[in-house]
């Protein structure tokens, strides 16, 4: 760590707190700001720390830590907790992130619902708005995005000035596979030709960032879930349509076009002349489970809650689990052959009980493959973010861009 703050002049703490948060750069003239980000990241990772612990974790000197915490205090990004007594010497005072220090808004636009999340500086969700629909209508959804975005901003009152940005998460092609959903070509093209990030940017003066919805979900898992312990993993997100993301060496790999981890399009068999094989989307998506329920006169939305493993849905769910697990196992073996992965993390908008059953079935399916030439099957882990993952990941994009030392953790292409 570059420890340059010791030679810098002390901060004038008599100045009034700024109305807006200062930008924190990380270029060669911004080593002081970079070290601030290192301290903030240490607090985000380890929780509240005394100054001596901060110095040990970050490798910065005690003098530098003192200067940095003074500046972060000035920006209202830290809070001091009750002194820890009972030890030799002066009691230590743990310092943590101030939840009101900064905010971001994540917006997830999906094929069946939209979500707006207000996330605080610690990554916790403060407010949530959900809008369900059969399929989004542009003329209805765009005004709704503006309305709910402003609703969350207005609800912050004086803290509105602490919002650092908006992150938008949506499918790479929202109008894709429109025939499966029973949509017209016109409905599909309308969404495929729209720039969602630009549309949202026209609604606000805040900076707007965009990521594929399952990549955003992968960011949430990477920064706040299992990704903190697993350096490289394939991420599978079970939703209306199955999707994925890819983490390599603790960085989200977006790919040339931002579409890495597009597991929905994975062919399930070799192509025959004039006949394209089925894709994973047709075998491992909750949409297919919905159709099973609908064909038997059952509520298809049970695919997303605890009813999915209860009678009378259970007998139909079992067949879907076996079929979906076989498709996922094929995907996992293929990915392992190319990427030599540590693990596969499975999450989704489904009930945790269904995801657990799906993982167990996929483990059994993996045992049927020939692993000669490969190290071993990667371990399957359940994700921790659930349905919020996509919107939460969207909100983490601007927070991480403003306050993390490794700003390319999700931007690296």
Low-confidence stretches: 4-19, 24-29
Helix content class: 25-40%
Distance between the termini: 25 Å
- What's the average pLDDT? 88
- Helix-strand pattern, N to C? HHHEEEEEHEHHHEHEEEHHEHEH
Category from helices, strands and their pairing: alpha/beta
* Side-by-side strand order of the widest sheet: 5-4-3-6-7
Q: Radius of gyration, Cα only, in angstroms?
A: 23 Å
Q: Main β-sheet: number of strands, strand sense, barrel status?
A: 5 strands, mixed
- The outline comes out as globular
Number of strands: 12
The portion of residues forming beta strands comes to 15-25%
Counted by DSSP, the helix tally is: 12
Could you characterize what this model shows?
It comes from Acidovorax facilis. It holds the Pfam family ROK. By secondary structure, this protein is an alpha/beta fold. The protein is built from twelve helices and twelve strands. The strands form three sheets. It has a five-stranded mixed sheet with strand order 5-4-3-6-7, sandwiched between helices. A five-stranded mixed sheet has the order 10-9-8-11-12, with helices on both faces. Strand 8 and strand 9 (243-248) form a beta hairpin. Helix 2 crosses helix 3 (62-74). 40% of the residues are buried.
């Amino acid at each position: 760590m570059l420890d340059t703050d010791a030679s810098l002049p002390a901060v004038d703490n008599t100045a009034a707190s700024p109305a807006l948060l200062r930008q924190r750069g990380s270029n060669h003239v911004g080593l002081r700001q970079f070290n601030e980000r290192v301290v903030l990241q240490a607090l985000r990772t380890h929780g509240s720390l005394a100054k001596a612990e901060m110095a040990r974790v970050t490798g910065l000197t005690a003098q530098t830590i003192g200067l940095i915490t003074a500046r972060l205090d000035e920006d209202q990004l830290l809070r001091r907790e009750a002194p820890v007594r009972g030890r030799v010497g002066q009691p230590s005072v743990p310092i943590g992130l101030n939840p009101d220090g900064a905010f971001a808004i994540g917006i997830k636009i999906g094929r069946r619902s939209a979500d707006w999340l207000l996330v605080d500086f610690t990554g916790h969700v403060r407010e949530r708005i959900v809008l369900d629909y059969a399929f989004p209508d542009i003329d209805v959804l765009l005004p709704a995005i503006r309305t709910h975005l402003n609703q969350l901003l207005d609800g912050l009152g004086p803290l509105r000035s602490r919002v650092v940005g908006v992150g938008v998460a949506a499918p790479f092609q929202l109008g894709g596979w429109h025939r499966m959903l029973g949509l017209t070509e016109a409905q599909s093209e309308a969404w495929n030709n729209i720039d969602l990030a630009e549309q949202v940017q026209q609604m606000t003066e805040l900076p707007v960032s965009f990521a594929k919805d399952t990549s955003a979900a992968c960011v949430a898992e990477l920064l706040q879930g299992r990704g903190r312990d697993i350096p490289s993993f394939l991420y599978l997100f079970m939703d209306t349509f199955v999707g994925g993301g890819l983490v390599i060496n603790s960085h989200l790999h977006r790919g040339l076009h931002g579409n890495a981890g597009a597991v929905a399009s994975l062919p399930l068999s070799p192509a025959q002349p004039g006949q394209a094989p089925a894709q994973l989307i047709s075998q491992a998506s909750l949409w297919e489970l919905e159709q099973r329920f609908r064909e038997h006169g059952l509520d298809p939305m049970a695919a997303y809650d605890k009813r999915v493993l209860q009678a009378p849905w259970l007998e139909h769910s079992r067949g879907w689990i076996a079929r979906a697990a076989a498709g996922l196992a094929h995907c996992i073996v293929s990915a392992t052959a190319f990427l030599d992965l540590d693990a596969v993390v499975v999450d989704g908008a489904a009930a945790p009980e269904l995801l657990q059953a799906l993982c167990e079935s996929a483990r059994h399916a993996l045992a049927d493959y020939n692993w000669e030439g490969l190290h071993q099957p990667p371990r399957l882990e359940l994700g921790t973010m659930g349905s919020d993952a996509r919107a939460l990941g969207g909100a983490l994009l601007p927070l991480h861009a403003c306050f993390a030392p490794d700003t390319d953790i999700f931007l690296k292409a």
